[in-house]
Amino acid sequence: MNTAFANIGQTNSHLNGQVAREIATKILSGEIAEGETLPSEPVLCEKMGVSRTAFREAIKILYSKGMVESKPRVGTRVRCKTNWNFLDVQLLEWMVGIETKKDIYLEFLDLRKAIEPQACAFAAERATKEQRIELTTTFQRMCAIAEDFDQDQWIETDAQFHRMIFISSGNSFYVPFGNVLVAMFKWFILFSSKDGGVCIDEHREIYDAIMAGDSTRAFKASQSLMQKDKHGLGKSS
Amino acid sequence: MNTAFANIGQTNSHLNGQVAREIATKILSGEIAEGETLPSEPVLCEKMGVSRTAFREAIKILYSKGMVESKPRVGTRVRCKTNWNFLDVQLLEWMVGIETKKDIYLEFLDLRKAIEPQACAFAAERATKEQRIELTTTFQRMCAIAEDFDQDQWIETDAQFHRMIFISSGNSFYVPFGNVLVAMFKWFILFSSKDGGVCIDEHREIYDAIMAGDSTRAFKASQSLMQKDKHGLGKSS
DNA sequence: GAGTCCCTTATAGTCATACAATTGATTGTA
DNA sequence: TACAATCAATTGTATGACTATAAGGGACTC
What we know:
homodimer; 237 residues; mainly alpha; Arc Repressor Mutant, subunit A; Four Helix Bundle (Hemerythrin (Met), subunit A); two-stranded antiparallel ribbon; 10 helices; 2 strands; 3% strand; DNA-binding
């Protein structure tokens, strides 16, 4: 498989990535408040032990997510939270481990409820042949895992299944949700209980409806799954 | 007003911003295909007449939007489109002027239909006092503009009104939509016709419902506006 | 005293160069 | 053929110098 098409996450193990993560974490946790200006570049470079080159690349990453803005003579300030792009995979991954944010998946569920049924409906209408094949492959994997249950594998495959639906919607704006969803699912691996059965029947209903091209049924099936599953995990609780 | 809370857009007039825009445009338009690797850094720096520093900062911006990934000895390759974050203000702004993308607002409308009614409902339930005040101020401006009609001002204020609703939803994941919406509305200024009346009554219904704290009514009012308005512009056509 | 203009200065923005780290490709060897 | 060592191309990082920008203070005018 072409690497350009493989990974979803954006874990950047380089220095600039680490710096970006470190600062982002402080901003997201509120340790650095909105409106506050960061110490100057030389100071922070010294403090973090990196060169200006790496540091500035890190800042560009934060900038492009709407978290900071820089001006000469002023410095780099943290923008208002309303400008942060929470629908960004990296940003979500940075939130992992921030204690005060661990309940944010509840907010995400409210978004899923609004958008995912419609995504399923679109997928039923517009999924290409290739997308149907991949959806089938993924669903079959889910069935296998449901039989011989493994928590981590289930979550990963479940996320992939739902992501595939968003991709199959044929709408550019729906696609990013699939990626965000995958990022959120990674959280659940960290602190989800090992018990509870999977909603394989509910997923089958969604799958069947999409394959049958029945958008109304797909819409309802998705709604039904989200209704049953308080955690948005594909697990009944 | 604190500058950290003022601007929504992210127009970066610096060199790295220009470079980012230039390359992003070529990627978005398909001139540089998915999976393709860019020429090496020294080559592109020469070609564009900038230093590696500025160039690499530009690439970091694209990277953080999921558009490219870099590896030593391999180069920088364009990632699969499914990884691009279309729910990003800068990315949307870069799309302006790409001829083949000018109908993408139709896709966006499909997203709005799914999410905005729910945002209105949440806003009715959870808008803070300050948010209600700002919403009121904005709505009053809309009314004034509707009287003494000005196309550009209408679009700008209309966008601000809808953005305020997303912010008032109290859900971190709904907020970015408001910003994306503003970016999309900027397009309309470019190629919208000057005729057509504004849907001030429909907007008033949404506003009243939110102020009354009636989420069901707010939901329906938003649906109704989107139904009536084929372009999602707040204008009947 | 209030306002305007200009100068100073701190800060980010840009450049050039050198070196380090990574990894695909090549070559060598069993 | 399979595996290991080497090479080389490309990005990653560091450093130092210079430029551009704009906040803040001071002198001047009204």
